[in-house]
Model the fold of this input.
Amino acid sequence: MDSGWQATQEYARRLDHDDPLARFREDFYRPAGTVYMDGNSLGLLSRSAEKAVLAALAAWREQAIGGWLDADPPWFTLGEELGRLQAALVGARPGEVVVTGSTTVNLHNLLGSFYRPKGKRRRILADELNFPSVIYALRGHLTLRGTDPQADLILVPSRDGRTIAEEDIAAAITEEVALVVLPSVLYRSGQLLDLPTLARAAHERGALIGFDLSHSAGVVPHRLSSWDVDFAFWCNYKYLNGGPGCTASLYVNKRHHGTTSPGLAGWWGYRKDKQFDMRLDWEGAGDAGAWQVGTIPVLATAAVAGALRVTLEAGVDAIREKSMRLTEYLISLVDCKLTGRDLGFSVGTPRDPVRRGGHIALEHPEAVRIVKALRARGVIPDFRPPDVIRLAPVPLYCTFEDVWQTIRHLHDIVDRREHLSYTPERGTVA
Ligand SMILES: Cc1ncc(COP(=O)(O)O)c(C=O)c1O
Done:
């Protein structure tokens, strides 16, 4: 094997023994009898998140309306408080992050703020491998503004169906492009884009730029403010373990505070000290808090708060370090056990660790059936069409032995043709 990795179970156990983040695994509830490799879709429940939700319920039960100011932390400023804590994960300055809304709705809000078509600069640039919800939002927004989504949404093509070349993106930012919206990590292949280079390219060409960090927040550190990114948005239910459908996050560069109005203004974005003056004129908060819309969903945010403690304690740099080792180990095991033996697997994720996020896209023409067979054996991955098995060895709760076990099961399934006893149709939720 490359890089000194070894293919034995004992070796995987040794790596776990030496893992400085090993103790965090016990903070999480892992579905009994499973190897969970799907934390890039839905992160696991931690004891800390559970405790925070129970505390929020107790505050509601015991303090009722008093919870807005007297709960710990007070619900009224929960979005700002969690934004302050999340700033460390994405390299934001104070006041640039707020926990609010949901991912796609936050994008709509940010488009309402940062898409400012002027003269012939009226196009939005994205890429053809972007997450569908983002593309729907971009098209919907262009339609709302009376522009033509067919003509005014430019999707940079992929050369290989898996990745997007940064130079192709830069070359497509013409003087007709007002705004660029891209993912940090591509949801299917796991490619990590070069965010600072792209931010520079957009600004040099006179466009604004925003990133969807859903597949990187909590597993890849960012420095959004030093890179001068205009805005970003992300969900908290993947690597940040905030629970299904939990409250999301957004980032707005300080440069835009007080000068750019929120596209979807609402009273929760009003200056907190004056919100209850109930005036009809708008006096938005002087920071990213202005992009909040309505009352914060406290129960859906409490788990975000609890889970965040675990991530911050582990530290996103240490998480990234372990993540790169886990994905590197996974790729070496694929090379050693699953390829070159006619088993039909290939790796669709960039092999350079600095060009990938937290998951690996394993490609196979029979991916749907293999995913079903894996689940039957207690390994939980997910499937993305047309042929991708996504495997996310999440550093906070996955082990090197989990990776080893996953590859062993994959090998045995295909070697024994076990997957052929499953139907090739994917489930409603894949
Ligand atoms: C990369 C990416 N962007 C956006 C979304 C949409 O998020 P939401 O359903 O929370 O609006 C998802 C959901 O999985 C995603 O993976």
Q: What stands out?
A: Residues 316-338 form the longest helix (23 residues).
